[in-house]
Amino acid sequence: RMLNIRRLVPSACRLEASLSRPSRSTTIIFPRSATVPRDVVSTRPLSLSATVWKKQKEIIDRDAEEEDDDGLPQDYKKKTLKVGSRRLDTFVAKSAGVPSSQAEKLVLSGRVRVNDEKTSKKAYNVQQGDAVDIWQEVCEDNADFAYAIRTEVKSYDVTNTGYDIHVHSWKRFLVDNWR
């Protein structure tokens, strides 16, 4: 016997069922011998208030972010960098807060890595998923490590004035000393 799930949810479980937001066509198949108590059957369809839905969506979004756990420290800042191009030197200038001439020197002198590889190509276009490290200084406790500004590109949007690059940024990120 096929019964509509909206009519079978007990009142105590109504909120939990409504949060999972089953479609109108969702059905549950019960064996012929199954009986459903009268107080369980509801003729009123489940509805979800906008407030409850927003709260549930926030929980789902938070859980999705936690699933993205890639082992990196969670003390990053989410930023949107507004740049004219995706070139590495422009990106470094904006993410490190330095003038473009100094950013160009950082790239050409080997103080910038993209995805754990040294690069001296200032015209490289950063892509979604790239991790850019800008070398700052050697770690005082261990010379095998250094502090860097790490910026991970999460996504970017093309705008009329250039690009809005959405990033996660760390100001003092501990990396291996590549210099």
Automatic annotation (TrEMBL):
Keyword set, alphabetical order: RNA-binding
Organism superkingdom: Eukaryota
InterPro entries, sorted: S4_RNA-bd (IPR002942), S4_RNA-bd_sf (IPR036986)
Keyword Acetylation: no
GO biological-process terms attached to the record: regulation of mitochondrial transcription
Pfam families tied to this protein: S4
Domain RNA-binding S4: 86-144
Signal sequence segment: none
GO cellular component: mitochondrion
MF terms (GO), sorted A to Z: RNA binding
PANTHER family noted in UniProt: MITOCHONDRIAL TRANSCRIPTION RESCUE FACTOR 1
Protein name: RNA-binding S4 domain-containing protein
Natural source organism: Pristionchus fissidentatus
